[in-house]
Every structure is written in structure tokens, then in C-alpha cells.
């Protein structure tokens, strides 16, 4: 395969959360027309692909990860014709589209689940899900807990229970019922036929559960090796068949493969190796940096782990600093870093001091780290604007099941899902022509709008744009080798293919940079030295 055929190995992928990207219809919620209208912005930013979070019909109990119909568009987001137009317009600008596939669970409103409830115990309709009788004394069938808290089982009026590893409105499919894999093969074909270049697979390691649904052993972690609902061997067979399906699609508008990225956590080489083997799907997200504090030693460990896990396999784990499930980078880097290492309940409640100026400065440095690492990079919408987490959303406006299921104990993920600020001095900052936005925006985002930053050469938006442009033009960035340089314990420094050095100063004192042309820095140099919380790209002589 040529480099452009393996586009997924070094693509810059921009994650669009459709409900919060841009509103084309004026109802206060983002939609596909809004994404389409803003494509020139994304082309100008220089991204290679867009990953769209779910836009399928859904009651939105979990941000659209509760799907009613995998082969349609929720009217709030538009129509199938809008998807087709978006794919075509994006292609004309050289941008690929990646869609989210949610195969572990659906919505309680999905016709299959409604049929299962109506058909009763023992029916083929119930076989598509994991219905079981309860334990003695009215206990659920086993001790599994939902990722959002509380038992992973809900009882229905006839006495049986159904499994939901996430919200009670998201019943898990039974992947051992042949109808389920058959459905998802159709779903993949449906979107591939429409011209999507890739898929992101939600909860990828969760599909199969161990036969007999055994209890989780005492003291066991709730994710990872040995957990009865994680990474059962059949998952590999499914993904190998998906790989064949993807490979059977000829390059369409673009050269190269239709690719898949798995949403899975990894911190164990042996555990993940089978998923990165030849014949498996293309990539596994590398989400480790989302919880890594701003420390040279910790970040180096996270980078080494990711490189080690991928080894010399075909896969390259995409680097991720933000997504729709984690507090914004600026806020994470603006708090006491011990709280990133060991989050307290106060952090989960958003009751924490944030130094936004410090967070922004570090987040700018982190941008040059992200785009300097070997492999593809995912950017979450608004990351390029240096948006902070919105911590002050009133309780009655919060939507995330993490908030509701925890009885308000945990604020959850709404703060990173706030509608983007495009222009103007006050909410809704050009996001909508309508009166309000589905989640409220902070009152102090005027300086962070796209409009304000586009006019400012020193803005975070300008930094991302320049970095992506240089990355594209520089042999050695993107896919390829990394060699660490020793620049002291508080400095991350590595050279890409002998051509470009990436240096990030995480210590207090300014440090020397390697000799060469400093083609991009995240902040001003200090008499030729790299100040704290600053990064530089240096073209070596
Ligand atoms: C991971 C998604 O990123 C998250 O938003 C969702 O809540 C869970 N999977 C369940 O689908």
C-alpha cells in the first residue's frame, strides 16, 4: 500500500459533535446542514477527515449513543439527503467522512427492543438482547454494574431482566444471536455504499459477553483483561470479517482503504496485540493521554506505551487529547495536576480552581506535541479554539446520564459538549439564528469565537492551522519514526525522521533548543530559550 492509500495512519481527523457544531435550521441544536455550511472552515483548518458522532434517530438519552435506527438520520439533524450532500461537498474539498457505529447497544425505543418486550420470555425477539431471569430474593441475574453507575440490569414487568452496560435506556445486544451480526453487516454496507471513508466503532471490546454471564470476580477492575464483558475471543472473528468487508470496497472518490478505528482503552500490550494483528481492523484509539497529567515523565510513559503497544503492526494508534467524553484540555491543564492523576469527588463535581491562562498556554504547547507525534491525530471540535470546559451549567439544563444517574453527584460530560462559538460578542455566538442553544454557553467566550481568532495571528486557531499546514508539508511529520532526545527530566524532546525536532518544556526554567530553524513555537521564546509550558518545532540543519 502507498502512503496515500494508508491515509488513516497519519490523517488529521476533526471530530464533529453534530448537536453542538453549527445550527443550520435555527432551532438551537446543531445539524448536518450546519456542518455542511462550515466545511470551508474545516478545509481552511486543513483537516483530512471528519468523524461525526451519532446523528441517527435517537431519544438522545446518551447523546445519540442510544440508537433507534442505524440506517437513518434523526430529523433534528436532517435527512439522508443531507448526509449524501455532506459526503459529496466534503469530498470536493478533499475531506473524508467517518461515521460512528454503535454495535454494543441500541435504544429502548429501537423496534427490536419494543418487539422483545411485547414477545415475552423465551421468544426469538428476546434472543437479540440479553434477557435473563433474576437471582434469588429479587436480585439481578449477576453483579455487573453499569458504566454510569448502579446495576447493569433492569427488570421488565413480566419479571425478566435485561442487560445494559450503559444507561438503562441502552439495552445490550446479544452478539451470539446471528441476527445481530447480520444487522451490523447491513449497517456497515449501508454507510460504505453511501461513500463514507471510515467508521468509528463504539465500545468495541464489549460486544460479546462470556457464556453464562458469570459474576465479575471480587476486587476485579471493571474494564480490562479477564472481565467477562470485555474482549471475548469472538470479537476478533467479528472484526476480521468487518475488515474483509471494508477491504472489499474499492477506493471511491479517494485513493486508499475504507478504515475503522476502535474505541477501546489499552494499557497492556499482550491484551491489545490480537486487535492490532494482521487482518484485524485498522486502528485502536489511544486514549491514554486524556488522563495524563502535565508532566514530562508521565507523558513520555504514555507515548512509549502507545508506540510499544502498536509495535511494528500495521496499526497506528491515533493520538487524542480531547473528545466528547472528557473535560476540555485547557481546563484539565489549568488545574492542580495532582487532581488529574487522582481525581477527587470535587473534581467530578466541577468544584475546582482553574487557571485558564495557564491551561491555555499548556494546551497550545500540547497541540504541537499532538501534531508532532507519529501517526494520526484526532481533534475534537473547539480544541482548535482553546475552549475551556463549561463548569457552570445549571442542573436543570444538564443532559448527561452520568449527571442524572449519579443523582447530580457527578457533573458529567455536558461541559465539553457546549455549542461552538462562531462569531459575535455574546451567546449564541453565531451558533444559531434562533434564540437559544440546547446547552447554555459561557458568558465569556467572545474572545474565543472563530471570528475573533481568525483575525488574530497569535490565536490558538492560527497555531493549529499553521501546525497542520507545516505537518502536511514536512516529510517526517505524520507517519514515521520517533527518536527521543535527552533534554533533561522536565523536557519532552524527540526527532521525527531525522528532520524535525519537537521540544516541549514542562519544567519551570527556560531550556535550550536544538540548533536549527524554529519553524513554529506555541509561545514567544525567551532570548532564544524555550520558556516553561511552551513547545517548539525545529527544522534540523
Ligand atoms: C463511548 C461514547 O464515546 C460515549 O459517549 C458513550 O456514552 C458510550 N460509549 C456508550 O455508547
TrEMBL record:
Pfam families: Alpha-amylase
Domain Glycosyl hydrolase family 13 catalytic positions: 15-417
SMART domains cross-referenced by the UniProt entry: Aamy (SM00642)
Domain of life: Bacteria
Residues that span the membrane, as ranges: none
Similarity annotation: Belongs to the glycosyl hydrolase 13 family.
Protein name per its UniProtKB record: DUF3459 domain-containing protein
Organism of this sequence: Actinomadura parmotrematis
Native organism taxonomy: Bacteria, Bacillati, Actinomycetota, Actinomycetes, Streptosporangiales
Amino acid at each position: 500500500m502507498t502512503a496515500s492509500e494508508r491515509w488513516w495512519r497519519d490523517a488529521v481527523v476533526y471530530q464533529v459533535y453534530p448537536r453542538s457544531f453549527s445550527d443550520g435550521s435555527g432551532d438551537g441544536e446543531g445539524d448536518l446542514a450546519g456542518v455542511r455550511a462550515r466545511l470551508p472552515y474545516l478545509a481552511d483548518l486543513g483537516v483530512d477527515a471528519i468523524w461525526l458522532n451519532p446523528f441517527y434517530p435517537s431519544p438522545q438519552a446518551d447523546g445519540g449513543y442510544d440508537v433507534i435506527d442505524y440506517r437513518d438520520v434523526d430529523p433534528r439533524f436532517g435527512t439522508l439527503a443531507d448526509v449524501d450532500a455532506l459526503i459529496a461537498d466534503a469530498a470536493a474539498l478533499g475531506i473524508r467522512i467517518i461515521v460512528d457505529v454503535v454495535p454494543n447497544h441500541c435504544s429502548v425505543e429501537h423496534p427490536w427492543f419494543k418487539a422483545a418486550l411485547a414477545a415475552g420470555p423465551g421468544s426469538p425477539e428476546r434472543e437479540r438482547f440479553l434477557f435473563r431471569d433474576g437471582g434469588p430474593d429479587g436480585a439481578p441475574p449477576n453483579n455487573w454494574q453499569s458504566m454510569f453507575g448502579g446495576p447493569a440490569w433492569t427488570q421488565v414487568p413480566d419479571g425478566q431482566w435485561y442487560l445494559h452496560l450503559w444507561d438503562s435506556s441502552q439495552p445490550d445486544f446479544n452478539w451470539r444471536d446471528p441476527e445481530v451480526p447480520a444487522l451490523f453487516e447491513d449497517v456497515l454496507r449501508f454507510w460504505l455504499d453511501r461513500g463514507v471513508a471510515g467508521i468509528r466503532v463504539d465500545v468495541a471490546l464489549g460486544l460479546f459477553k462470556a457464556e453464562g454471564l458469570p459474576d465479575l470476580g471480587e476486587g476485579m477492575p471493571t474494564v480490562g483483561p479477564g472481565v467477562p464483558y470485555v474482549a471475548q475471543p469472538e470479537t476478533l472473528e467479528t472484526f476480521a470479517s468487518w475488515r474483509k468487508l471494508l477491504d472489499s470496497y474499492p477506493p471511491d472518490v479517494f485513493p486508499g482503504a475504507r478504515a475503522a478505528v476502535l474505541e477501546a482503552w489499552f494499557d497492556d500490550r499482550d491484551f491489545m496485540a490480537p486487535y492490532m494483528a494482521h487482518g484485524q481492523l485498522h486502528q485502536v484509539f489511544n486514549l491514554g493521554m486524556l488522563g495524563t497529567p502535565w508532566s514530562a515523565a508521565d507523558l513520555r510513559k504514555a507515548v512509549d506505551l502507545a508506540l510499544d503497544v502498536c509495535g511494528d503492526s500495521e496499526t497506528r494508534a491515533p493520538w487524542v487529547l480531547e473528545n466528547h467524553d472528557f473535560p476540555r484540555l485547557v481546563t484539565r491543564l489549568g488545574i492542580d495536576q495532582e487532581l488529574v492523576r487522582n481525581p477527587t469527588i470535587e473534581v467530578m463535581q466541577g468544584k475546582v480552581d482553574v487557571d485558564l491562562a495557564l491551561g491555555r498556554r499548556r494546551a497550545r504547547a500540547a497541540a504541537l506535541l499532538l501534531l508532532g507525534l507519529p501517526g494520526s491525530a484526532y481533534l475534537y471540535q473547539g480544541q482548535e479554539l482553546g475552549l475551556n470546559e463549561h463548569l457552570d451549567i445549571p442542573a436543570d439544563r444538564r443532559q448527561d446520564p452520568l449527571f442524572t444517574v449519579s443523582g447530580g453527584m457527578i457533573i458529567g460530560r455536558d461541559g465539553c459538549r457546549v455549542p461552538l462559538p462562531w462569531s459575535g460578542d455574546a451567546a449564541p455566538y453565531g451558533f444559531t439564528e434562533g434564540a437559544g442553544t440546547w446547552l447554555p454557553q459561557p458568558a465569556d467566550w467572545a474572545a474565543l469565537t472563530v471570528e475573533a481568532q481568525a483575525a488574530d495571528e497569535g490565536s490558538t486557531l492560527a497555531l493549529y492551522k499553521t501546525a497542520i499546514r507545516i505537518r502536511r508539508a514536512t516529510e517526517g511529520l505524520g507517519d514515521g519514526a520517533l527518536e527521543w532526545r535527552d533534554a533533561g527530566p522536565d523536557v519532552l524532546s524527540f526527532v521525527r525522521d531525522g528532520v524535525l525536532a519537537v521540544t516541549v518544556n514542562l519544567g519551570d526554567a527556560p531550556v535550550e533548543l536544538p540548533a536549527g530553524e524554529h519553524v513554529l513555537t506555541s509561545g514567544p521564546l525567551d532570548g532564544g530559550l524555550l520558556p516553561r509550558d511552551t513547545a517548539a518545532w525545529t527544522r534540523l540543519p
